[in-house]
Specification:
The protein is of the alpha/beta class and 616 residues long. It contains 22 helices and 10 strands. A 6-stranded mixed beta sheet has the order 6-7-8-3-9-10.
Length: 616
């Protein structure tokens, strides 16, 4: 067993920890021009809407009592024009703000996806796929309302409240004081509700991630096969129901948190007109100045128009605090350390020859444990073949993954044509080194789309040639849809040997000078193995080849064979030289020979069915 890899899953943060407001606002910076336009539209709309109560006052106090029909008509038309103008401005600001919000969502999704593409392999071996999907889908999706409407709502409501309060003061400052007495209490209540919902939201998103991971694992082809063949389908359903039940509880709590307190605010605000009428009557009875009917009605109208933006503003504050939990989860991923990064000034090799050197190379998954590889010195001349053999856990696959930089050495270095692979650009390294693993991955797409993934500009002739070399063309051509046949989830419509040959054809299209082969034939039957081995031989011709050998009969002709034991080189030489030495390699050959005699073409059980990234 190899040492435990570091846990790359981001640790949960305190949901009460403040999120940098400047970082959130920076998401909107590229769209500040459009946001400025939205702000102008919002301000204009708010100012125009405030004019209606003043027009109403003139109608009630001047036009109607004075029987001035012309003035009455103009004032009525003014009120209609105000409504039309406000509606047009509202539609325009919604269009622009929604567009900006969706662009910000797009930027966030892309940034998280791009960051995950740069994460080391260790991150994905320690993180559930559903957790990653939940961050992109659920967390960013949950912020949609915030980024698409909150900013506009905030500006709109602030402008409306400010303009309305100014207008109310202009009508009568004493009634304005009565109207605003309870506002500080309302703000305090909304902040308490927001903090409560923020905590619940963090728990809800974590629960959604757990459910997403369960669905991804149990409803994949492999998961369904395992559940049914083990008779665990009902158990999986019960487990999912339990997780769903916990989500139901969190959703109800999230929606009901502070609901009664916010409802109380709405009731009090709705009752304010009665309070205004009562205060006006009380002032009159105490000998204070009388209010004109128009002033009183206009003031109540303004007070009522203050109700909607005030409640909305308080609700927006609650929503923003809730969304902080989502921003925190997204920023956790964006802040993950990238341990395998492209150099600032990458070296590009226009035509790599393919010489590979391991110079005192060491690697460990855990700095506190013994290294998986220790002091490896190897040279693989361009165009030659190296086979790496050894017992399970000796570090064979780990050694091979240092060449394409799926992991970086923790000591020494690995070079390609004399250049440290850590100094090479990712594109150069990807063009130079091809990897064919025994765990073949195919996309849920057609055969031709899977092949073109290696070389998008490949012609049909190039694809067919690669398929012929890989011994798979005749099979694909005989299918009803030929190269347009959809391979199914993870290629499950094809056999293991067919998938391997498709993977080999994909690598042939890329035409790399260096090949890393995590032997593709160890778990195949004899007939399929021979077909795949012919494809591997065709692929390896003229290339530098590093083969991880699980079945020693496939590497007898290698130019150099290295035996790893405990992360160190125990033996090296050709097949004949190592047999003559009668050491570890000879013992492994005898083991393989006895196994094949007893069990036909059985594969090494310790290496069968390994998931990608579970390295030895």
């Amino acid at each position: 067993m190899r040492p435990e890899e570091p846990n790359w899953t981001p640790p949960p943060k305190d949901p009460d920890a403040p999120v940098q407001l400047r970082r959130i606002l920076a998401l909107f910076r590229p769209y500040r021009g459009r946001l400025t336009l939205v702000g102008l539209l919002v301000a204009a709309s708010s100012l125009v809407s405030v004019a209606s109560p003043f027009l109403l006052r003139e109608i009630l106090d001047v036009a109607i009592p004075g029987r001035r029909t012309g003035l009455l008509t103009l004032l009525a038309l003014g009120m209609i024009a105000t409504a039309v103008t406000t509606s047009v401005f509202g539609v325009l600001q919604t269009l622009i703000s929604t567009t900006v919000g969706q662009r910000v969502m797009h930027d966030l999704r892309t940034a998280v996806y791009a960051k995950l593409q740069r994460m080391p392999l260790a991150f994905f071996t320690r993180t559930r796929t559903g957790e990653v999907q939940s961050r992109i889908a659920n967390d960013i999706g949950g912020m949609q309302a915030t980024v698409t409407s909150t900013a506009t709502s905030l500006v709109s409501n602030l402008t409306s409240v400010t303009a309305t309060v100014v207008a109310m003061i202009a009508l009568d400052w004493r009634l304005t004081v009565v109207s605003l007495l309870l506002l500080p209490l309302f703000v305090w209540i909304s902040r308490r509700v927001g903090n409560e919902r923020k905590k619940i939201t963090a728990k809800r998103q974590k629960q959604m991630a757990t459910m997403s991971a369960m669905v991804t694992e149990s409803l994949s082809v492999s998961g369904v096969l395992l559940g049914r063949t083990m008779g665990r389908a009902d158990s999986l359903t019960k487990s999912f129901a339990g997780e769903s039940e916990r989500l139901v509880d969190l959703e109800v709590r999230a929606n009901m948190a502070g609901r009664w307190r916010m409802a109380t605010i709405g009731i009090v605000m709705a009752a304010m007109p009665a309070l205004i009428y009562w205060a006006a009557g009380l002032v009159l009875q105490l000998g204070g100045p009388a209010f004109s009917l128009g002033t009183l009605v206009a003031f109540v109208t303004l007070q009522q128009s203050l109700l909607r933006p005030t409640v909305s503003l308080l609700a927006t504050g609650v929503q923003m605090q809730t969304s902080l939990a989502l921003f925190q989860r997204i920023f956790e991923y964006l802040d993950l350390p990238v341990t395998i990064a492209e150099p600032a000034e990458p070296v590009h090799l226009p035509a790599p020859r393919g010489e590979i050197r391991f110079e005192n190379a060491s690697f460990g998954y855990d700095p506190d444990a013994a290294p998986t590889l220790d002091g490896i010195d190897l040279t693989v001349p361009a165009g030659s073949s190296l086979a790496v053999v050894g017992p399970t856990g000796s570090g064979k696959t780990t050694l091979s993954y240092l060449v394409p930089r799926l992991y970086d050495v923790t000591g020494g270095r690995v070079t390609l044509d004399g250049t440290d692979v850590r100094d090479l650009g990712f594109d150069t390294l990807a063009r130079a080194v091809g990897v064919v693993s025994q765990e073949t991955y195919l996309f849920h797409a057609s055969v031709v789309e899977n092949l073109r993934f290696a070389k998008p500009e490949a012609t049909d002739e190039e694809i067919e040639r690669a398929a012929r070399i890989a011994q798979i063309h005749d099979h694909v051509a005989a299918l009803p849809d030929g190269y347009d046949t959809v391979v199914g989830e993870r290629g499950y419509r094809f056999s293991g040997g067919e998938k391997q040959r498709l993977a080999i054809a994909r690598t042939i299209l890329r035409d790399p000078p260096v090949l890393v082969l995590d032997e593709a034939t160890s778990a195949l039957d004899t007939r399929t193995e021979h077909a795949v081995q012919r494809a591997v031989d065709a692929l390896s011709a003229g290339r530098t080849t590093l083969t991880i050998a699980h079945r020693l009969s496939t590497v007898r002709d290698a130019d150099q064979i290295v035996v790893l034991d405990g992360g160190r080189i125990a033996e090296r030489g050709t097949h004949d030289e190592l047999l003559a030495a009668d050491g570890r390699y000879a013992a492994l050959v005898r083991r393989d020979t006895d196994r094949e005699a007893a069990d036909g073409d059985a594969a090494d059980p310790a290496d069968d069915g390994r998931a990608p990234g579970i390295l030895v």
